[in-house]
Design a protein that fits this description.
Elements: H1 7-13, H2 20-50, H3 56-61, H4 67-88, H5 96-112, H6 118-125, H7 130-145, H8 152-164, H9 166-178, H10 181-191
Helix pairs in contact: 2-4, 2-5, 2-8, 2-9, 2-10, 4-5, 4-6, 4-7, 4-9, 7-8
């Protein structure tokens, strides 16, 4: 019988870290990189909002955004990105170590930001129906930011981000699992610049 997994899924399964501590460091790295990527993307979209690209109602809302609204939005995008990577790598049929890897990464988001919890995000949005999940997440970010009216173009940009980052998430996962810890540190340092 032919193996239904993709070549990448098979490659990732072979990269199981030898020690639990190493696996945890790699999961934390993965979480932090996805968080930085989500944060930068949302910041770019918000700067486009501030310029009026998505309409006056949204433009007027930008100066009123609070840190908690932004942090909740970053966390939501990060958690769903983690969840989508998990789905892309065999979902619930993935090996125990890989499920633990994603669980550790999701738990780290709770260390970064208090609420909402990673578990509540996954429970609310973690559908197997990818298109529905992506649409729901984009709508939820708009609600958090209070971009309720005239947000269709903004929603589409968020949805596009979640769809188009699949290859980035996949490459980042391979990098996180295959590179020496020092290379991961250097990469994180470069993100902070």
């Amino acid at each position: 019988m032919e193996d239904p997994r993709t070549a990448q899924q098979i490659a990732i399964e072979r990269l199981q870290p030898a020690q639990a501590e190493d696996q945890l460091r790699r999961a934390l790295f993965y979480c932090h990189c996805l968080h930085q990527y989500s944060k930068r993307t949302l910041e770019l979209l918000i700067s486009r909002c501030d310029s009026g690209e998505f309409g006056l109602q949204i433009q007027e809302q930008v100066p009123l955004l609070s840190d908690s609204q932004l942090e909740s939005s970053y966390k939501l995008l990060t958690c769903i990105s983690l969840h989508m990577t998990g789905l892309d790598n065999s979902g619930e049929t993935a090996s125990d170590w890989l499920l633990e890897f994603f669980s550790d990464a999701a738990s780290e988001t709770d260390e970064l930001f208090e609420s909402p919890t990673a578990m509540s995000i996954i429970q609310k949005h973690g559908s197997w129906k990818r298109d529905r999940m992506i649409h729901d997440v984009a709508n939820n970010v708009c609600e958090i930011l209070k971009f309720s009216e005239g947000n269709e173009a903004f929603n589409q940009q968020l949805e596009q981000f979640l769809v188009e980052t699949a290859s980035y998430r996949s490459e980042l996962l391979l990098f996180a699992l295959s590179q020496p810890i020092e290379a991961l540190r250097r990469h994180l340092d470069s993100l902070d610049r």
